[in-house]
Amino acid sequence: MKNIQISPSILSADFSQLGTEIKRLEEGGADMIHVDVMDGHFVPNLTIGPPVIKALRKHCSLKFDVHLMISSVHKYIKAYADAGADIITIHPEATQNLEESIKMIKDLKKKVGVSLNPGSKIELITEYLDKIDLVLIMSVNPGFGGQKFMPEVLDKIKQLKKIQQEKNFTFDIEIDGGINFENCKIAIDAGANILVSGTTVFKSNGGDIKKNIDLLKLK
Questions:
Q1: pLDDT at residue 2, as a whole number
Q2: What is the overall mean pLDDT for the chain?
Q3: Residue closest to 89 by CA, chosen among 128, 40, 123
């Protein structure tokens, strides 16, 4: 099993203190920073754009794990790459040509992630698994923080893990949505090696970020 990594979602951070919050995450042992980008169109909410990511980049040396929940996503990829994203994750439903979007991200020297919503079939991405660095499985319907974990998506993680082992692929398997101290173990056991967590990291145990990250890693 790969080392478990924690990618805290800044969607649950204090937006008036984002620079400070990101420093707290880095000091608390986060492996990367998960940035949820929503456009109010592909998903029913609005969050942050490239200027905010560019400003935050100065406050942190960790990788920025940027999840683009926007459409049409292809025309925005370069802006987020230029702003400082290290991993750019897109949804197959949000681009007219997934292969072209994957190629663009690679040409910009960024890691490629592809995300599947709870209702999205794994077949949408199976032919691209040799070209991507990360598969993000959504365990809630994207758009809002604080939703309850949907255990039925674990079957997709198990399928991905099986393909990964059979074909000797190296992509990471990330899970995002309602991840807490109770369900992190079943997500890891299913095959996930990167956990996205917002509320649990920032709010549990009196906001003790280091303790919360360690607990999610099953330390």
A1: 64
A2: 95
A3: 128
For residue 189 the two structure tokens come to 């056991």
pTM attached to this predicted model = 0.95
CATH for 5-216 is 3.20.20.70
CA distance 63 to 86: 6
d(CA 108, CA 81): 7
Q: Is 166 helix (H, G, I), strand (E, B) or coil?
A: helix
Between CA 38 and CA 69 the distance in angstroms is 5
Question: pLDDT tens digit string along 146-196?
Answer: 678 999 999 999 999 999 999 999 999 999 999 999 999 999 999 999 999
Strand residues in 106-210 grouped as ranges (E): 111-116, 134-138, 172-176, 194-197
Which residue numbers are catalytic? 36, 176
Instruction: Retrieve residue 58's tokens.
Output: 């100065």
Q: What is the DSSP letter of 113?
A: E
Dihedral angle sign, alpha carbons of residues 154, 187, 11, 36: negative
Q: Domain residues of the chain, as ranges?
A: 5-216
**Which tens digit of pLDDT belongs to each residue from 33-65?**
999 999 888 888 888 999 999 999 988 999 999
CA distance linking residue 110 with residue 121, whole number of Å: 25
Give the residue from 5, 2, 3, 1 showing the smallest Cα distance to 197: 5
Length of the chain: 219
